[in-house]
Amino acid sequence: MAETTSKWQKRVARWRASGETAEVFGAREGFAASTLRWWSSKLAREKAATGSVEMVQLVRAPSAPPAPAGTVAIDLVEVRARITVEDGVNAATLKTVLAALGVRGVA
After folding, report:
1. Which of 1, 3, 13, 72 has the greatest number of CB atoms lying within 10 Å of its CB?
2. Which contacts qualify for 58-66: CB closer than 8 Å, 24 or more apart?
């Protein structure tokens, strides 16, 4: 893998994890928001071409009120899906949600 691609994979991952807009993150890190979005798009297209599945980090929002058992909450954030799965979720329902979002490779 080229050094430049590796560098941008790390930057895009840090941006996504930050929850910031491309403009805020880019300004803080010293590069253009448009460049960050371009690399994010390029890397996503390459990933889609390989059919790989991205692993995600589960983060519980400290200020969110507790959800009822079996709740699945989906927040669309900059054309990404943030899925919160609480204890007791129905596996068939979760599989249906993931399929509706186009997530491949779900067993």
Report:
1. 72
2. 58/85, 60/84
